[in-house]
Amino acid sequence: MRLCWLARRITPLETLEELWRNRFTELLPPPARTLLGPLITREIEQSLAAFGNAGMYQLRQEYLLAPLLCTSVYNLEPLRRTLLELINEDKLNQPEDTRLVLGAVNVATGEPNLEPKVRREKAHFRIKAKYFDNRCHRLEIDHIIASASIPPAFPMTPIGGQNYWDGGLFLNTPLGKVCTGRCCGAIG
Description:
This protein is an alpha+beta fold. The protein is built from eight helices and ten strands. The strands form three sheets. The chain has a five-stranded antiparallel sheet with strand order 8-9-4-7-10. It has a three-stranded antiparallel sheet with strand order 1-2-3. Strand 8 and strand 9 (162-166) form a beta hairpin. The protein starts with 11 loop residues before the first helix and ends with a strand.
């Protein structure tokens, strides 16, 4: 959780503690926890995660009514609220202190090219991924959310008029790009 170093008011370790103990593990909202807490075992509470997590995601109500009309099962507004509360956007954009590179795939252009490179009778496609690097871009909470938007569970995230999904859909962690410093722009 590199983002913990970008904490708003508390130390990085306190931020991590807050995230994992109080935000990302809270499966029942506070009113339901008060009313049902003594009646619900931990196993039952864990299975309720399908309905959402108060600090990360919530089930889209329209998904229950018309799932074929939805582009995702959950929405990430709870995660947005959590990050806005805990992350300092000024610290997020100080690469001299903490460099942050986030990978995302542009939904419109991230499809494999139609013309494959043929190598020993196997088709190889080039995927274009976008790396948002705080050395080259002003990062915002939406960049973090885009890098966690895994379909079909989570929705694509709009950034600058384009929609993005998690870069891990096509590429592993870009350690080589980070180490060489060549992260600005599209890679692929």
